[in-house]
Amino acid sequence: MMTNTAKSDTDAAPDRFTEMTALKSEKCNYLLQDKNGTNYEVTEIATKIPNLSQGKKVWITYHPLRRMSVCGAQPIEVKEVYKK
Question: pTM above 0.85?
């Protein structure tokens, strides 16, 4: 007989989502950092990803933007946020 086991947060997110960690920034409110250590800037991040805090993990789909960075990180547009 199979037993249902709880999956961790990283197992629950579909493959198309990228895991990011929120980082507090001096120039901008928050940046997102991927597992490779690359930082990303999201315009109006608080409206796209509510309740961010330092170290919080979020899963998003995004695409890069072709504009200058205000925060010294790669500008991206968040297309979708994975909600548990």
Answer: no
